[in-house]
């Protein structure tokens, strides 16, 4: 959900390690507009979802379908896509430490603003915190994934995604896989804000946007390993298209739009309802 791309790569990405690559390849840099477009489409979907959230919870509009499985699927499709894309684009950007600190700082600002002006709707350890910290954690891990072969990258992607599924309900106290509960986690894990950041919130913890490191960092890592697969097998050039300029523009400025969209939505709805 952040401007972490710098999505420029050569249109002749590395060949698979199982094939004989030419000794020299002419590298022509181009932007992966397909990634920008997908991020923009997902951002537009998120804006629609949050507008409905404001209508239901702040302006008390009756919308029973918003509490349905379909609405839950809508919400999950947005966060899964953003986090996977952020992980995928991690290797494409420059200055990952600075970007990670910037996004983490933006998340702290968002938390502070909501605590001051909307404490009942506060955001603590939201998606920006997750992505900012994931960027920082992947600085050393990113170097390790560069050493993976094509098969190694595939196995790593499968493993990190299985870890995501396994820990998906850790905040509720269980580990499960494919609907089968495997074990119950000890209560001692759920103690304070530090454990809440990790994915084990204590009783009474509340946030309207909660994305702890466990399980979501594993999904970010899955995105990073998917990039390694695409790079090794020469698939990155497929992401040059499609280029839908309005969606691509949104995708390139996603951090700023994310920070501004909720106040703008609330302001517009407030004027519509009370003026």
Describe the structure.
The structure is a single chain. The chain is mainly α. It has one domain. It is 58% helix and 5% strand. The protein contains 9 helices and 4 strands. The chain has helices at residues 33-58, 69-89, 96-117, 127-145, 150-166, 193-198, 213-232, 245-252, 254-274; strands spanning 8-10, 29-31, 174-177, 180-184. Strands 1-2 form a two-stranded antiparallel ribbon. A two-stranded antiparallel sheet has the order 3-4. A hairpin with a 2-residue loop joins strand 3 and strand 4. It starts with 7 loop residues before the first strand and ends with a helix.
Provide the domain count: 1
Helix/strand order, N-terminal first: EEHHHHHEEHHHH
* Tally of DSSP β-strands: 4
Mean pLDDT: 87
Classify the helix fraction into a percent range. Answer: 55-70%
Overall geometry comes to: globular
Structural class: mainly alpha
Strand order of the largest sheet: 1-2
How many helical elements? 9
Strand content: 5-15%
Instruction: Report the major sheet.
Output: 2 strands, antiparallel
Radius of gyration: 20 Å
Alpha-carbon distance between the two ends: 33 Å
Instruction: Identify low-pLDDT runs.
Output: 1-6, 9-28
């Amino acid at each position: 959900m952040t401007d972490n791309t710098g999505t420029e790569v050569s249109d002749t990405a590395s060949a698979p390690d199982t094939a004989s690559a030419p000794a020299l390849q002419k590298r022509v840099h181009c932007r992966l507009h397909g990634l920008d477009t997908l991020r923009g489409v997902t951002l537009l979907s998120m804006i629609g979802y949050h507008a409905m959230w404001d209508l239901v919870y702040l302006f008390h509009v009756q919308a029973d379908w918003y509490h349905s499985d379909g609405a839950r699927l809508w919400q999950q499709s947005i966060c899964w896509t953003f986090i996977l894309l952020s992980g995928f684009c991690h290797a494409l950007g420059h200055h990952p430490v600075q970007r990670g600190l910037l996004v983490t700082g933006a998340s702290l600002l968002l938390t502070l603003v909501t605590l001051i002006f909307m404490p009942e709707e506060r955001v603590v350890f939201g998606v920006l915190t997750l992505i900012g910290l994931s960027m920082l954690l992947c600085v050393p891990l990113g170097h390790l994934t560069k050493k993976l072969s094509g098969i190694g990258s595939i196995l790593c992607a499968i493993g990190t995604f299985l870890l995501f599924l396994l820990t998906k309900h850790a905040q509720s106290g269980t580990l499960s896989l494919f609907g089968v509960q495997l074990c119950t986690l000890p209560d001692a894990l759920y103690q304070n804000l530090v454990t809440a950041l990790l994915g084990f919130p204590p009783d009474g913890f509340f946030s309207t946007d909660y994305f702890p490191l466990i399980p979501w960092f594993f999904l970010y890592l899955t995105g990073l390993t998917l990039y390694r697969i695409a790079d090794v097998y020469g698939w990155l050039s497929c992401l040059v298209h499609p280029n839908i300029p309005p969606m691509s523009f949104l995708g390139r400025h996603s951090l700023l739009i994310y920070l501004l969209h909720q106040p703008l939505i609330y302001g517009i709805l407030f004027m519509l309802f009370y003026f």
